[in-house]
Amino acid sequence: EVQLVESGGGLVQPGGSLRLSCAASGFTFSSYWMSWVRQAPGKGLEWVANIKQDGSEKYYVDSVKGRFTISRDNAKNSLYLQMNSLRAEDTAVYYCARIWFGAYFDYWGQGTLVTVSS
Amino acid sequence: QSALTQPASVSGSPGQSITISCTGTSSDVGGYNYVSWYQQHPGKAPKLMIYDVSNRPSGVSNRFSGSKSGNTASLTISGLQAEDEADYYCSSYTSSSTQVFGTGTKVTVL
Questions:
Q1: Rounded to whole angstroms, how far apart are CA atoms B32 and B100?
Q2: CA nearest neighbour of A50 among A73, A4, A81
Q3: With contacts defined as CB-CB under 8 Å, which chain B residues touch A37?
Q4: Is some CB atom of chain B closer than 8 A to the CB atom of A16?
Q5: Cα–Cα dist A7/B11, whole Å
Q6: Which of A16, A91, B51, B100 has its CB 3.0 to 4.6 Å from that of A104, i.e. a possible disulfide?
């Protein structure tokens, strides 16, 4: 059974940093692109970033470029999102998702809440 | 990277059919057969309902179907049931090798 479990969310001040993790199991992690998707409270889904199987390609939504970094450790079956220079508008539930070769998100984690506030 | 356009809400009575539209551009919806649809109940993670425009994952009811014409994709739910009441989002691959979601549609079963 495919499982994606996020962790690392919490309350952080504006300008601060946070690192999200996603532990994957039930599939060959190194064979799939992975993604982060977020959802602000009461708002819609927003794609944040993708990373290729070997980490050689990474893509970001414009609003996080230069501030967020997606990475992975295939030996640990883990996906990460390093978030720096956080802003109030980054407040959201962040979902880890498996993405089928860039086309669609077939499995999702339960999400982790990031709150940026002073 | 503008969001795809969906109606804010759609409603129908049990047993009826409803259709949700998802309008993009030739750089996303119109340019690729990589449109997918997601169902999200309150407080839950999204669930894949349709992929590659019209394909259903295993376990998804055949009451859900997808199609595309030009820059607009559509999700149809036939035989509407109370459990279908949820938020629905479309998504598309883009020419920038990224993804974009729709604005979301709240489906209400009357």
A1: 13
A2: A81
A3: 46, 101
A4: no
A5: 36
A6: B51
**Letter string b/e over residues A61-94, b meaning 16 or more CB atoms within 10 A of that residue's CB:** beebeeebbbebeeeebbbbbebeebeeebbbbb
Which residues, including other chains, have CB under 8 Å from residue B10's CB and lie 6 or more apart?
Answer: B18, B19, B20, B105, B106, B107, B108
Each residue's pLDDT tens digit, B27-86: 999 999 999 999 999 999 999 999 999 999 999 999 999 999 999 999 999 999 999 999
Dihedrals phi, psi of B59, to nearest 5 degrees: 95, -10
SS3 A88: helix
Closest CA to A17 of A84, A64, A71: A84
- Exposed / middle / buried, residue B105 (Cβ in 10 Å: 0-12, 13-18, 19+): buried
Residue with tokens 């939504």: A61
Chain B CB contacts of A33 under 8 Å are: none
Instruction: Indicate whether B25 pLDDT > 80.
Output: yes
Which pair of tokens denotes residue B90?
Answer: 């479309």
Q: Beta-carbon neighbour count of residue A34 at 10 Å?
A: 24
Rounded to a whole number, what is the distance in Å from the CA of A100 to chain B's nearest CA? 10
Let me know: does B98 contact B87? Beta carbons within 8 Å: no
Identify the residue among B60, B98, B103 best suited for mutation to test binding to A, counting A beta carbons within 10 A and taking the highest: B98
